[in-house]
Amino acid sequence: MSRIAARFEYLRSQGRKALIPYVTAGDPEPANTVPLMHELVNAGADIVELGVPFSDPMADGPVIQQACERALKHHVSLRDVLGMVREFRRDNTTTPVVLMGYLNPVEIMGYETFAREAAEAGVDGLLTVDLPPEEGADLVQTLTTNGIDPIFLLAPTSHEGRIKAICAAASGFVYYVSLKGVTGAATLDVDAVAEKLALIRQHTDLPVGVGFGISDAPTAARVGRVADAVVVGSALVKLLAANTQDLPAGRAAAADLLGEMRQAMDAAPKA
Amino acid sequence: MSTVSKPQQTPDWSAFPDARGHFGPYGGQFVSETLMEPLEELREAYHRYLKDPEFLAELDRDLAQYVGRPSPLYLAERLTRELGGARIYLKREDLNHTGAHKVNNTIGQALLAKRMGKTRIIAETGAGQHGVATATVAARLGLECVVYMGADDIQRQSPNVYRMRLLGARVVPVSSGSRTLKDALNEAMRDWVTNVDNTFYIIGTVAGPHPYPAMVRDFQSVIGREARAQYLEETGELPDALVACVGGGSNAIGLFHPFLDDAGVAMYGAEAAGDGIDSGRHSAPLCAGKPGVLHGNRTYLMEDADGQITQTHSVSAGLDYPGVGPEHAWLKDAGRVQYVPITDEEALSAFHRLTRTEGIIPALETSHAIAQVIKLAPQLRSDGGIIVNLSGRGDKDINTVARMEGIEL
């Protein structure tokens, strides 16, 4: 069983929902990332989503765009990100790590090389936001062969036929983008999300995570009532951005917010 | 001697792209999930209206009465004499309403937007020509219009910025990344994914996710269809060569596509070599880049060893783009079109030369094509001919050219 599947199975047995923080690798500088990952795990992260910096993050709002720019000032490459995961794995062999980013860095590295080196580094999943399953057959196969879960997005605009096809290509979990927009956009509509999740669940037994627009503990708790996993990114990255001169303070602020979310989710009455 | 008949063994160029937008290994749909369904709606609508006589009649009427088509095919006699080779014909897209080829496409897409019930138009622009052409058709149809433009491009193309504002468009400066065309495209995509219900994104070039490369090509192919018929009528044969500048590549595809089956017609795409390919400061992905994925399609890109898109440079804002339309990538690999580098200096020199010999001020983008003609014409037989796409007029560039020569206007 993959680390991701094992984690969701454990959570289910506990009656809890997964909390998944996203941070951009190398933001604001490379040495910050591995300590931050550990602090997020200590604050209650079940899976860590690590952003691979890209020069043209088309699906991201200004907060994560700027995080990419800060990381790219240090020329953080996909290989550097794998190095960070490798370092994280020295002290943590159980928390799943999912890489999230855009296809081009993976394409340039080569699917085979990437999948082999990522698996060896301890990466558990890959989400390339600009790769729909229609274009992804080769990469999905290469990832799967190397024991890495291909994670796909579902959106408010995905009709039933697409939901079916995407769930068939995905493993680990599927990630429902809660609103039409970029990362870090306005708050989501939990009722509309719940309705769509019901439709998605007719087509898959995979856990369904929800992200985009979750910025505080009450929203995390409300989403946690209807989803299997809550993904939070821009709200954490904002705290890192506000503390680029004091890295430990930035990490602590992010961990504090995540801890509040954890508490609110665990305290929420079960659906 | 060129022949009109279709030769054996050529690929059936018209069969591309395939159903999912692939030109061989290039093209496709590399976008986030939210846009997949809207792209499918667009593809469906486009294919439906492409066969709708009423839509086509409205498009033809607008191209004739609003744009001013057909554009003339003009024999540049003095330039021909000076160069001492093939006759040089200019396809005068600079005479279109708004001063460039861009309007052929925005007219088509705006009619489509209207039929799809969209009330809001967005666009990206580099030199501002596509932005002006979009703002123009939006004004005419009474649609809200937002144009994204790199902050640096706003500086170097200020006349076009004012023109768009006069037309009622909101011009949004984009200060992320390299502050040029690619960043404007990123921002337009972000707008589209957020406002996809009421918004139609008019992409200005033959790039982006399927169906844009094919759709923009089809709207621009009026250039090549007219030029082919005009040349045949005047000379009774086909030209020896076609020349056009290539940034994203819409004016080039527009001219080339109707001639692809004419095996005797050579084709040259002039890419912006900036300070020279060896300097690294250029915008020539076909001459010096490698394949990758950006802005919804797989194509040749300017990128580093890590897959990050690199800074581009060209004196011409409209060519200052790290990618290129996927059909060009495929035509390059197939060897059907030759893509050649033209430096800023060569383009500037061609700008002055055409202005002085023919009384036509070309856009700096177009000047790259003229520079290639200056190299090519003397090598060809004197009873042959070259058609060059005079894709835009240069009024918008006079500030840039003056500044480079130390003149304050």
From TrEMBL, chain A:
Catalytically driven reaction(s): (1S,2R)-1-C-(indol-3-yl)glycerol 3-phosphate + L-serine = D-glyceraldehyde 3-phosphate + L-tryptophan + H2O
Keyword Amino-acid biosynthesis (UniProt): yes
Enzyme Commission (EC) number: 4.2.1.20
UniProt entry tagged with the keyword Lyase: yes
InterPro entries assigned to the protein according to its UniProt record, in alphabetical order: Aldolase_TIM, RibuloseP-bd_barrel, Trp_synthase_alpha_AS, Trp_synthase_suA
GO MF: tryptophan synthase activity
Pathway: Amino-acid biosynthesis; L-tryptophan biosynthesis; L-tryptophan from chorismate: step 5/5
Membership in a protein family: Belongs to the TrpA family.
Protein's recorded name: Tryptophan synthase alpha chain
Lineage: Bacteria, Pseudomonadati, Pseudomonadota, Gammaproteobacteria, Chromatiales
Gene (UniProt): trpA
